[in-house]
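Lecture notes, unit on protein representations.

Consider one protein chain, 312 amino acids long.
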Amino acid sequence: MKAIVIDQYGSKDELKEREVPTPTPQAHQVVVKVAATSINPIDWKLREGYLKQMMDWEFPIILGWDVAGTISEVGSEVTDWKVGDEVFARPDTTRFGTYAEYTLVDDHLLARKPASISWEEAASVPLAGLTAWQALFTHGQLTKGEKVLIHAGAGGVGMFAIQFAKQAGAYVITTASERNHELLASLGADQIIDYRTTRFEEFLSDVDVVFDTMGGDVQKNSFKVVKKDTGRIISIVSNFDEELVKEYNVTAQNIWLEPNGQQLQEIADLLEQKKVRSVVGATFPFSQKGLYDAHALSETHHAVGKIAITFS
């Protein structure tokens, strides 16, 4: 099968097209013929070597941890899935990712692709959607009537977080440049702050949950707006200054996504019911150049919504 691999850490030039063996499923795995995948910052951070201490893998490495496609083969003990099922998933984090024509997925990580959305829309959901879900609910314990601040609402994770928080009955505040305000309002944001002209910490207070997708000064200033004693700050980018945590006496967690098929199915049901939508901002073809261009766009940090890769 065709795959895009890296043989060493480095720039986008390390992305190479190659023929590699088609995977064979173990007992509780399926092989998915990939219809679409999507780009996440972990892809190029790993490509550049930032995560090598955490994931010290042998080369070649196939990047990519989102998949939407059709099951082409099932393992000997798979009972809930069959060949031909249309599925999507955030597979386990291994060096055999989804920048390939076929990929392996553990059967408990699969969810049924909503019939009402495209392959590209489906492939854009798992990693970003599960990250937002777990940040808000598993770790943030967000409940109806609470106030949540979601930083960088126009990003792939932010857009899902806005919609999930709104569905949960929260008052949703987000930060974004002015050009994205209309879109984010349509997704359910109640209050949108233009980070280019306004310092959020000067206008907000008594926020129950802050979802930090930025780190740095944004993370530090978030302590100024969260409720003392009961507030929660959940980050997906960096650890916290423990002195600030003590000073403000809040819950502060830096989390790492756990693939979860059951949660993804809950998200799939919201998508099917049109209570949530997947926003694909750009699409590139599955090729060496397509992945190069997609990584380049992701690295700007200014992509709106998700970046999808389509197989045809």
